[in-house]
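Technical appendix A lists one of the benchmark inputs used to test multi-chain prediction within the project. The record comprises two sequence entries:
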Amino acid sequence: MIGVGVFLVLFVIICTIVIAVRTDPDKPQYDERQVLVQYRGYKYAAFTGIILNLASAFIVSNQSVVTAPAIMYMIAFICILVFVLYCIFKGVYFGIKDKWKSATVFSAIAGIINLYDAVTQITRGSFLQDGKVTLENSTNLVIGIFFTAIAASTLIQHIRERVSTQ
Amino acid sequence: MKNLKMKSARAAKDLTQQGLADLVGVSRQTINAIEKGDYNPTISLCIRICKALGRTLDDLFWEDEE
């Protein structure tokens, strides 16, 4: 019964979010080239996921330092990162009227805070649990790298565009 | 192939890439990609660009035989 209740609550929350995003008048607008390039990004991210999952099936075992759930979690984030970085470097991540500066600042803050937590864990010696990297203890590190990479690549791409237009 | 006709038509109108992008409702990067020849726009976008620059499709997007 609890499982069904949790499922229903999650279903309602997801439906509400989807409806809110789809009907939001300020939702990001992408032009025809941006949509096409994003589809290519989805394809590369999906292929990355397939290859990494295949590789992990051969590499990960019970003796691995990184546990299987942590590997799956990292693969999911790598796939998303492939998509996001591809879109950023192709200039299609932000919509036509999106504010890239505030998004970059928020990404940098989220990245730095999570990296700080991860470094604190490592220096205290509490990063490994029973000598293994688990889903719980790798979260800050993975999210920190994820958001820092997004902020850094957005800045790099902005500098590249400024140089190319001058 | 670079679209120098579009670039010169834009310059003749004293428009930046961002200015033209705003007029036709696309991103600046898309205008840049069209001018560099990295992206072939749809006919709908071609028409919008032509209207914004006051030119015809032949003027901007017809490739000469030479």
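The mean pLDDT of chain A is 89. Helices of chain A lie at 2-23, 32-59, 68-89, 100-124, 135-165. Comparable benchmark entries are summarised in Table A2.
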